[in-house]
C-alpha cells in the first residue's frame, strides 16, 4: 500500500480538550430534556458568534479531505464497506435545514446523499415503516443525511397516536436491531437531536411570520406541534434513552445559537470521519505501465 | 403579493460589460473546436488565479439567494414550474467533478439534485436511451446537475460505434425535441462543454499517475479515449452545431485554468437564475391569524 498517509490534525482538534463526541453524547440511563441546556456551547474553541465563521472555515479543509478519502474508498477499494449516516431530528425551527446548508454544505456534494422524510405517501404507508428508510440508505463511500428519519415513527406517530401504543412501543427495540445491522454492514451512524428551546422556537416562528422572504418556511401545522411540546419532549426522552446504543449513539446538539449548532455538527462529522482512519485506495492498475503508455502518446 | 423584491446585483455583474451567457455561447453555424481557446478567460472581472477565490466568494451570496428563491417557489408556490438543468460534458480531466465541488457546492445542497451518468446498466440498456435521463430530471424548485448526460449517446456511442450510424445520426433531432419539451415544462437548460486542451489533459493525467492520493481518479480507459481525441472533437463539433437551440443553448467553458472554469460556471448559473426573476412566494395562510395564534401561546 503506497498510499497510506495520516490525515492532518486541524487547529480545532488541538485546542479542544475532549472530543465533541464525548461532550455531546447522551449519557446512558433515564433522560430528561431539561438536563440539556439549549444555549450551551460545549467544546467550542473560540469566543462566540464573532469568530464562529473562522472556526468553521478552519475545520473545513480537513473535513473535505476526510470526506474525499471516504468517497475514494467507496469508488476504488474493492473491499470497501464504509459509509456514514447522519440522522437529524429536532422540533420545527431547530435548524435541520440550516445544518445541511452550513455544515453538510462544506463537503463535496458528490459524496452526499440527502433525504428529507415528510409524512409518508400512500405508497409508503402500504409498506413497513422502515421500507422507505432502507431505500434511502447511503451506499459505500457516501455520507447519507436524513432530515427527519425513522425516529418520526416514535415521535409524531406516538404523540398523535397514529398507530396503537402496542405497535409503537415495540419500535424502540426494532430500531436498535435495524441500526445494529446497518453498523455491522459498515455504516457509521451519527444521530443528532437539535435541541431548540420552547422560547427560542417562539422567537423563530415569529420571525418567519414577520418576514415575507420566510413565509415559505412557515406552516400552520408548526403551531399544532408546538401546542404538544410536552408530549414531544417526553417522546424524545424515551427514544434518547432507549435507542442510544454504542453503534448508533445519540448526540444532543444545543441549537439556540445557530453558529454553535452548525459548527458542532461539522466538528462531530469531522471527528467521526477521522475515526474511520481511511487510507487512499491503492491503484487498481499497473502505475508504471500506465505512465509508459501516457508518455508514449503525443 | 407582499413579497416581491428584486435580487441584489453582485459586484461581478456591475463590472462585466457583457453577460457571460453571451460571451461563452456557441455561435450558430458550423463549429470547429479550434475556434475555442481552452486557456481564455472571457468576462473574468479580476486579474487571474490570485483573485479568483475572492471573485467566487463575491458572487456566492447572490447565487445562494437566487437558489433559495427558486427552491421556495418550488415548495410554496402552487403555480410554480421553474427548475434548472445544468448539463456538464467534457473529456476526462476537464473538471466536471471540480465544477460540482467548487461551483455547485456554493449553493444549498437541499436544492441540488445530482446525477452522474456512467456506462448504462443492463437494465438501462433494455430501455430507450432517454429513459434513465427522464428519471433523473429535476423537480420544480430544484437545480439538476448532470455529470455526463444524454449527450454521451452521440459521443462515446458515435465514436465507438455502439449503435449503427443510422441510429445515432437521428438522435440530434430527437435530443432537440426532448429538450424543447423540457423547456416548455419550465426547465431552464444550461449545457456546458468543459473545454480542456489535449496538452493540458496529458499534464493532468500524468499528475494523477504521480500522486497516490489521485490514483482513484485514474482509469486506464482514459488513455483509450485520449487515443481517439480527434473523433471525440468531431463528435463535439457536430453536437455543438446541431443541438445548440435557443431553449437549450450550449456554452463552451475554457477549462485549462481551473479557477476560471469554476468561476465561469458559477457566474453562468447566477445569470440564469437571475434571469428567472423569481419572487418569494406569497403566504399560503392568513398571516395575521397565525401571528394571533402564536402570540396567544405560552
Report on this structure:
The structure is a homodimer of 298-residue chains. With 298 residues, chain A is of the alpha/beta class. The first copy, chain A, is built from 14 helices and five strands. The first copy, chain A, has helices at 11-15, 20-23, 52-76, 96-102, 122-125, 131-135, 156-159, 165-168, 171-184, 198-210, 221-226, 229-242, 258-276, 287-296, and strands at residues 83-90, 112-116, 143-147, 187-195, 250-254. In chain A, strands 2-3-1-4-5 form a five-stranded parallel beta sheet, with helices on both faces. In chain A, helix 3 runs parallel beside helix 13. The radius of gyration of chain A is 21 Å and the shape is globular. At the A-B interface, helix 3, helix 4, strand 2, helix 10 and helix 14 of A face helix 3, helix 4, strand 2, helix 10 and helix 14 of B.
Amino acid at each position: 500500500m503506497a498510499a497510506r498517509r495520516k490525515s492532518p490534525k486541524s487547529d480545532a482538534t488541538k485546542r479542544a480538550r475532549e472530543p465533541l463526541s464525548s461532550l455531546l453524547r447522551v449519557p446512558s440511563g433515564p433522560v430528561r430534556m431539561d438536563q440539556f441546556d439549549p444555549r450551551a456551547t460545549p467544546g467550542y474553541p473560540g469566543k462566540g458568534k464573532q469568530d464562529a465563521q473562522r472556526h468553521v472555515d478552519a475545520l473545513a479543509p480537513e473535513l473535505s479531505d476526510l470526506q474525499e478519502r471516504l468517497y475514494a474508498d467507496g469508488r476504488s477499494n474493492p473491499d470497501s464497506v464504509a459509509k456514514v449516516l447522519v440522522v437529524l431530528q429536532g422540533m420545527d425551527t431547530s435548524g435541520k435545514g440550516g445544518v445541511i446548508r452550513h455544515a453538510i454544505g462544506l463537503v463535496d456534494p458528490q459524496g452526499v446523499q440527502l433525504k428529507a422524510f415528510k409524512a409518508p405517501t400512500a405508497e409508503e404507508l402500504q409498506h413497513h415503516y422502515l421500507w422507505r428508510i432502507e431505500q434511502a440508505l447511503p451506499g459505500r463511500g457516501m455520507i447519507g443525511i436524513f432530515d427527519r428519519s425513522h425516529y418520526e415513527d416514535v415521535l409524531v406517530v406516538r404523540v398523535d397516536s397514529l398507530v396503537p401504543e402496542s405497535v409503537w412501543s415495540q419500535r424502540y427495540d426494532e430500531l436498535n436491531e435495524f441500526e445494529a445491522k446497518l453498523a455491522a454492514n459498515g455504516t457509521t451512524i451519527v444521530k443528532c437531536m437539535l435541541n431548540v428551546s420552547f422560547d427560542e422556537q417562539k422567537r423563530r416562528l415569529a420571525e418567519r411570520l414577520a418576514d415575507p422572504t420566510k413565509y415559505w418556511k412557515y406552516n400552520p401545522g408548526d403551531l399544532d406541534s408546538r401546542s404538544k411540546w410536552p408530549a414531544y419532549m417526553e417522546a424524545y426522552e424515551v427514544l434518547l434513552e432507549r435507542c442510544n446504543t454504542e453503534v448508533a449513539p445519540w448526540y444532543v446538539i444545543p441549537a439556540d445559537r445557530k453558529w454553535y449548532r452548525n459548527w458542532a455538527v461539522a466538528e462531530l462529522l469531522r471527528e467521526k470521519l477521522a475515526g474511520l482512519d481511511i487510507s487512499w485506495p491503492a491503484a487498481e492498475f499497473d502505475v508504471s505501465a500506465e505512465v509508459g503508455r501516457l508518455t508514449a502518446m503525443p
